[in-house]
TrEMBL record:
Signal peptide: none annotated. This is Adenine DNA glycosylase. It comes from Kushneria sinocarnis. Its cofactor is [4Fe-4S] cluster. The lineage of its organism: Bacteria, Pseudomonadati, Pseudomonadota, Gammaproteobacteria, Oceanospirillales. GO terms for biological process: base-excision repair; mismatch repair. Keywords: 4Fe-4S, DNA damage, DNA repair, Glycosidase, Hydrolase, Iron, Iron-sulfur, Metal-binding. PROSITE patterns: ENDONUCLEASE_III_1. Adenine glycosylase active on G-A mispairs. MutY also corrects error-prone DNA synthesis past GO lesions which are due to the oxidatively damaged form of guanine: 7,8-dihydro-8-oxoguanine (8-oxo-dGTP). Its EC number is 3.2.2.31. Gene3D superfamilies: Helix-hairpin-Helix base-excision DNA repair enzymes (C-terminal) (1.10.1670.10), Hypothetical protein, domain 2 (1.10.340.30), Nucleoside Triphosphate Pyrophosphohydrolase (3.90.79.10). It is an enzyme of class 3 (hydrolase). Binds 1 [4Fe-4S] cluster. Pfam families: HHH (PF00633), HhH-GPD (PF00730), NUDIX_4 (PF14815).
């Protein structure tokens, strides 16, 4: 029996299982034929595919949609056209250009990795091996493979979220892909199918197929080049694959943001520690309770007036939620700032990284009632 023929004597379910047995050659031919006609060929990072440009795009695209990334990527590349420019930048400026993309550890790792490339590799990315690239901050095995495949054409399998979804459905691989056993199976499949020619196109095609056809919620199975060879589709259970991450209750933590303004409309911000929530970003002074905020004002700005709290809102992280209560306050007399603090003028904003809820509240402050 060849790759795609069914036996009329088999039971229906067994015959469908046989349909998934595509050889790597047939798989690659189908995928590349689809990519040549329907793939994405004009994204900004697909032009001049240097290791640096591919790397920046791959990091930005982690946990973030293409449509969101495009503008950020273009602004980032305009300011930091090469790894030397990024390495020489201040972290504040890097985080400023990342503001709104979320998962800020990506930006901090990007900045640090650029410095390592310049200091330890003379500004040249070590694309000779996946292991060498994966040793850089923030670069895992799949990202390293994508950088190598897309920028050099050398053979290096990848296994990002889109590829995991395609392979788990194609082979009806049970289990959450985050489990080591399941991930090992998927890496074996990725290794099996990755060709030795047109590796860059194949890599982009796998990502495109997952992003545009084999989507999480509404896969366009009738448009898929593997519609007749997909075990999940044959059974009508596409939405069961990949299996979801086991749910755990996300605790909610209550916190207060002290929005202290002076008569000039400036707002006091503090820089967060490098590690932890919103690491390295600038935020309002943050307290566990209203009383802690009052105590801080009594010690640092005793003439400040605490106004009525704004309605609390929730900001979700991967493992917990913040229930944030904004506390507006006004200070008449100027007060000095310590290291790691600054007066921020929303009318003439500094180029610093801001946590997403902080930026939202700053916008609201700027449009709120006129200071008296």
């Amino acid at each position: 029996m060849n790759d795609e023929n069914h036996s009329a004597t088999r039971a229906p379910d067994e015959a469908r299982w046989q349909a998934i047995e595509l050889s790597p050659a047939t798989f690659g031919q189908r995928l590349l034929a689809w990519f040549d006609r329907h793939g994405r060929h004009h994204l900004p990072w697909q032009q001049e595919q240097t290791p640096y440009r591919v790397w920046v795009s791959e990091i930005m695209l982690q946990q973030t949609q293409v449509a969101t990334v495009i503008d950020y990527y273009q602004r980032f590349m305009t300011r930091f056209p090469d790894v030397q420019a990024l390495a020489a930048a201040e972290q504040d400026e890097v985080l400023h250009l990342w503001t709104g993309l979320g998962y800020y550890a990506r930006a901090r790792n990007l900045h640090r990795a650029a410095q390592v490339v310049v200091e330890a590799h003379a500004g040249v990315f070590p694309t000779h091996s996946v292991e060498a690239l994966a040793a850089l901050p923030g670069i895992g095995r799949s990202t390293a493979g994508a950088i190598i495949a897309l920028s050099t054409g050398a053979r290096a399998p990848i296994l990002d979220g889109n590829v995991k979804r395609v392979l788990t459905r194609l082979h009806a691989v049970p289990g959450w892909p985050g489990r080591p056993r399941v991930e090992r199976t998927l890496w074996q499949l990725a290794e099996r199918y990755t060709p030795h020619e047109r590796v860059g196109d194949f890599t982009q095609a796998m990502m495109d197929l997952g992003a545009t056809i084999c989507t999480r919620r509404r896969p366009a199975c009738l448009l898929c080049p593997f519609e007749d060879a997909c075990a999940a589709h044959a059974r009508g259970v596409e939405h069961d694959f990949p299996a979801s991450k086991p749910k755990t209750a996300r605790p909610t933590r209550e916190t207060c943001f002290l929005m202290l303004r002076d008569r000039r409309g400036r707002v006091l911000l503090q820089q967060r520690p490098a590690q932890g929530v919103w690491g390295g970003l600038w935020c309002f002074p943050q307290f566990d309770s209203l009383q802690e905020a009052r105590d801080w004002l009594a010690a640092h700005a005793p003439r400040a007036t605490l106004e009525s709290p704004w309605s609390a809102f929730t900001h979700a992280f991967t493992h917990f939620r913040y229930a944030i209560t904004p506390l507006p306050a006004l200070v008449d007399a100027p007060i000095g700032v310590s290291e790691g603090e600054r007066w921020y003028d929303p009318e003439q904003p500094d180029s610093v990284g801001l946590a997403a809820p902080v930026r939202t509240l700053l916008d609201r402050l700027a449009s709120s009632a006129t200071l008296v």
